[in-house]
Write a structure and sequence with these properties.
Blueprint: E1 2-7, H1 9-12, H2 20-31, E2 37-39, E3 77-78, H3 84-87, H4 91-98, E4 102-106, H5 109-115, H6 118-135, E5 140-144, H7 151-154, H8 156-176, E6 183-185, H9 194-197, H10 206-224
Parallel strand pairs: 1-2, 1-3, 1-4, 4-5, 5-6
Helix pairs in contact: 2-10, 4-6, 6-8
Length: about 240
């Protein structure tokens, strides 16, 4: 079974991060040893130009917090500043090239923050899923709603757009779910706390990374019987 991570800055991570992708890899190693592959056209972290942890220091886009994170497990389709708007046009070719079976998708915050309103973002969700299914009619997808973030705490209009989009996303998942190509809406943990689970009010800290990985892992286990419940957080940083 081939898994493809799709996301924005919270998924790609930046130099020095563990990333929730790493947490999911650890989980898959436990519940599906030898029975899965992580696929995708990219494999690096984000390193902003001029960053003190950038290439000139020897860090660079492969500077994961765990240097033992295998190269093959680092693959993804995620980008800093990219959202549904950017991924919808490329997901079809990516699914076709990687033969992805399961999409684990965390998108939406960047769209609503900079590019599109809730209705336009939902239209891009539907375009994304249509393209993915055209490439693989049996593809599965787990979609994470927009999670809590610091801007929603002080920008009421933005908070309303996030809430409205999450409603539209749930409706799209219900409308488009199909036996041959099932869709799941992951649940944002009620315990997600911006002070503890992010390092800047938006991007996940190690505890937040575990909670995001758990949201995907538990959704797949509970709905599809795939893998097992997420249990790795207690033994990892």
């Amino acid at each position: 079974m081939r898994f493809l991570f799709v996301g924005d800055s919270m998924t790609i991570g930046r130099a020095g991060d563990w990333t929730w992708r790493h947490r999911m890899w650890r989980h898959l190693e436990t519940v599906l040893p030898g029975g899965y592959e992580i696929v995708g056209p990219r494999d690096g972290l984000y390193v902003p130009e001029g960053d003190p942890d950038g290439p000139e220091t020897g860090a660079g886009p492969q500077a994961y917090a765990d240097p033992a994170f295998p190269a093959a497990a680092r693959r993804h389709l995620a980008g800093w500043g990219e959202g549904w708007l950017h991924m919808a046009p490329v997901i079809g070719e990516t699914v076709a090239a990687t033969r992805a079976d399961v999409l684990l998708v965390s998108l939406g915050l960047i769209d609503l923050g900079f590019y599109t309103n809730s209705e336009q973002t939902e239209a891009n969700v539907r375009a994304f899923l249509t393209a993915a299914r055209a490439a693989n009619p049996r593809v599965r997808a787990v979609l994470l709603p927009v999670i809590p973030n610091i801007r929603a705490g002080y920008d009421a209009a933005f908070a309303a757009e996030c809430a409205r989009f999450n409603e539209l996303l749930a409706k799209a998942v219900a409308d488009l779910d199909a036996p041959a190509s099932p869709l799941l809406l992951a649940t944002v943990p009620e315990s997600y706390d911006l002070r503890e689970d992010t390092y800047d009010g938006t991007h996940p800290s190690p505890s937040g990374e575990h909670k995001l990985a758990a949201a995907f892992a538990d959704a797949m286990h509970q709905a599809w019987g795939l893998g097992g419940p997420y249990r790795t957080r207690a033994s990892r940083p």
